[in-house]
């Protein structure tokens, strides 16, 4: 499997045929293919980091492929009981407050590569935010 470290390099394959009686044939080497370029930016998984309690800070962790990470975008929303979304922040984190209690938080994350290529947004929604302890 190719990785970020392989971008810009060439690929070739060598093969040594071996029969069922273990007799070996000559090693064959393919032509070089490349250079390897990044695939499209893709967010494979997205999870919240933090506790869903008033007064806590939420952030996220994303697993992605498709080149070197650039300025990824974050959009945090408060989801009200009627389904209306209220945009809260575009930072990498969100500090939960009293207005978030008994609401859900939604994060829309878009992976952006260093070359400014943007992937499709990925969305996650939290459980209900609990009140903090006084």
TrEMBL record:
* Domain AIR9-like A9 intervals: 43-126
- Name of the protein described by the UniProt record: AIR9-like A9 domain-containing protein
Q: Which organism is it from?
A: Dipteronia sinensis
Question: What InterPro entries does the database record attribute to this sequence?
Answer: AIR9-like_A9
